[in-house]
Amino acid sequence: MVWTAALFFIVVPLVNSEDYCYDEPQCDPYAWGDMYPSCHPLLEELHSPINLDHQMTRNQSLEYLHLEGFDEIQTGHWTLKNNGHSVVMEVGGGMSVSGGGLPDVYHTIQLHFHWGGPASNGSEHTVDGRRYPMEMHIVNMKSIHPNLTAALDDPTGLAVLGFFIDVVYADNVHFGLISQKLSSVAYKGQTTKIKPFPLMNLLPKHNMSQYYRYYGSLTTPPCSQVVVWTLYEVPVYISWSQLAQFTSQIFSTEEDAEQVTPLQRNFRHIHSTFGRKVSVSKDAKLLAGAAGLPLSSALSLLQIILLGSFIISGL
Ligand SMILES: [Zn+2]
């Protein structure tokens, strides 16, 4: 989760002269609690990210979320911004998420990314201890709230859709609409316009009923514990070169800084669930083991994989 400097002024007015970072001991994620007390991972608290493992509970009522406006081309323009902590795309109005066990309708505000370095992965959540190359967060605010300050006072004020990003040989043409613009926001504070496109094009559209659900926090200061997390099981695929545009061409410093610093490994460390319930949607498959996927379903999944490799090898 990433917020603009403006938000910190509203939420934490006393510390607006300080900033957080990922790569220096005095301001890295382990030190955030010194500046932002709510970032201290105290016992029984609901911090994010977490590792997703087999200790999850199947919830048959968790079906597709309703993604309003995600198939449409929104009017106006979107804004891509380097805020020194991530690359954020502010998407204006017109889109919302609901259903899938969410307690309300949430308006879509922005999406942003977390990544690693040239030779290391950088998703925030991990799956069975595995970190994906990147993670994308689509941030949505409960529609009853007039602003983020109000939403951060509500235990379910935000709903974030998280997507793992993995790497294949081919470029992702839809993702390219963002990655091609990164050179315009290489330095902190830079912004550029993006022509709206159907946001669904970025998402694993055939697997949107497969996800995990838990209650957690922002993964950036002030680490507010107000987030209903939805982590999708099937990743978004991009190319190595599209990944490299994030890991080696974005800087956490301003253009005229004496020393430029690449923005890398902008993820928070994993937190304990402290026994929190993590739910598996009705159709989720990968981590189904202890969550109760019947053996016959597991077998048919294996058959599909074998059939798939047979078809591929037969071509
Ligand atoms: Zn995030």
Automatic annotation (TrEMBL):
Any one Pfam family match given in the protein's UniProt record, by short name: Carb_anhydrase
Keywords, comma-separated and alphabetical: Glycoprotein, Lyase, Metal-binding, Signal, Zinc
Superkingdom of source: Eukaryota
SUPFAM superfamilies listed in its UniProt record: Carbonic anhydrase
Signal peptide: 1-17
Top-level enzyme category: lyase
Residue ranges constituting the Alpha-carbonic anhydrase domain according to the UniProt record: 18-282
Record's function text: Reversible hydration of carbon dioxide.
Homology family: Belongs to the alpha-carbonic anhydrase family.
PANTHER family: CARBONIC ANHYDRASE, CARBONIC ANHYDRASE 15
Protein name: Carbonic anhydrase
